[in-house]
Design a protein that fits this description.
mainly alpha; single chain
Length: 47
Amino acid sequence: MSEIFTSVANLGFPIVVSIYLLVRVENKLEGLTESINELAQVIAGLK
């Protein structure tokens, strides 16, 4: 029984941290994409 808890502790924590970081990075990438699109529109308006 303790082997199961050890396995969950060893594997579960990295999985949870990985998912959390992926969600955070995805949100930041979406914001960056929007900013780049706005910048492209501004640059296109200057030409």
